[in-house]
Amino acid sequence: MKRILLLFLLATSIFTSCKTSQHSSSKSSENVVNITFLHLNDVYEISPLEGGKVGGMARLGTLRKELIQKNPNTVTILAGDFLNPSLIATFKYEGKSIKGRQMVEAMNAVGFDWVGLGNHEFDIDEADLQRRIDESQFNWLASNAFQNNKGTLTPFTKNVNGTKIPFPKTTILTFKNTAGKVVKMGMFSVVLPSNQKDYVHYDDFFESAKQAYEVLKPQCDFVVGITHINKVDDAKLAKLLPDVKLLMGGHDHDNMLFKEGNVIIAKADANAKTAYVHNLSFYTQTKSLEINSELRKINEQIKDDAEVALVVKKWEEIMDVAMKKAGLDKNDVVTEISTPLDGRESTMRNGHTNLGDLIAKAMSAAATKPVDCTVFNSGSVRIDDQLIGKITQLDIMRVLPFGGKIVEVNLTGSLLDKILATGLQNKGNGGFLQWDKISYDENKKQWLINGKLLDINQDYHVMMPKFLIEGKETNFGYLTAQNPGVKGIVESDEKDVNDIRNDIRKVLIAYLKK
């Protein structure tokens, strides 16, 4: 009996040893291919923000080099929105509009590998977009956005030494480890159709992603996506494609990391305040994948990369010259404040801030006659920063890089009610409204204008950006001069250089200087 028990224990020991050995073998370094993604999205500024404390392309250059040193299989991607908007992009250099040229040069210096299209890439005209594409040294991926030439749809292209290289719908990247083991990763990229231009055609991004996945999956070990869509749509896409491993997203400007089923969805903070580092480990024997994602703060603890810093300095100096030519003095102190003015997109697009209140009050003060209220879209503020201390003309230009005219509009109460409701509906995006002389009773669901209940049967005199009354903001397509609820529009003469209403930035500067 003892002999039988001994043989049983010996057999069990051998079995356990073999099982452990097999498990260890599958996990050994020679059977693992590691891949690293440095993932950013919605980057509009090449220089650091918040007084130099956060962000900055030169710091990204350093981080990228550190990651490559640890793992040569490092891919740096930007999930859309980088060519526009920014203050410097509104100026000219060498006789041509800058329109994102500074960003492409900085990204080339950093060493970006792949980008997806964002909706703001299509803010600039077709010729300028083509110039930026041709200047880029990185790859572009576009699964659902195509160039529309009078109804003929073709992929966007990059001109390389006289040859037009089409943007691929999908790509397969091959990685090896030191033992020579290989893994193939498929990748697609989709963008939401929020910026309709004649030269752009958008296919449905859900269907395009599905088709891309079906093409990729038979050819590779796993698939990831670059997305520039709303987070709710990222979640829907994950449900549609439950075997996609990672969606590296953009469009939302706040960092997030969540799972929908087994799909990991990640987005970093806008303007390179943070970046996601995704470490992927693929086990070649078991064909399994592990993903560990780390949010890295881009701040003063990261030193500038010297090469990228030179590019950034070049464009900062170009902007200085351009501002002087435009009659602006970047060092002119407009006012000095002790309480920070909050222009961060994460707050302005979700609630009301003191900076939003200040801009709205300045607009009200610029009216030709007293207004009942003022509204403006949070998306017109692009500084994504807090201001404190001495506030200069440069700060104001960074706050409102688009500029633009403000107008006085006579509206019916019913249309004003609809406008305010749409503003609430737009919470989280640039169509969320900031205002003056308006309050909202959340419990009673009632609007108050100048302390009195909004009367849908009364007409109101309202100040707003011309951009809004042209129906260009998200969900505001109905708000045009042709709407029956619009009773009249009072606007300034564009040729009158002394009328501050022609530029909201001058309106704010004048108000602060009083």
Automatic annotation (TrEMBL):
Domain 5'-Nucleotidase C-terminal: 337-474
Signal sequence interval, chain numbering: 1-18
Segments forming domain Calcineurin-like phosphoesterase: 36-254
Keywords: Hydrolase, Nucleotide-binding, Signal
Claim: Manganese is one of the keywords in the record: no
A Pfam match: Metallophos
Domain of life according to the entry: Bacteria
UniProt family annotation: Belongs to the 5'-nucleotidase family.
Annotated protein name in UniProt: Bifunctional metallophosphatase/5'-nucleotidase
Organism the protein comes from: Arcicella aquatica
Top-level taxonomy: Bacteria, Pseudomonadati, Bacteroidota, Cytophagia, Cytophagales
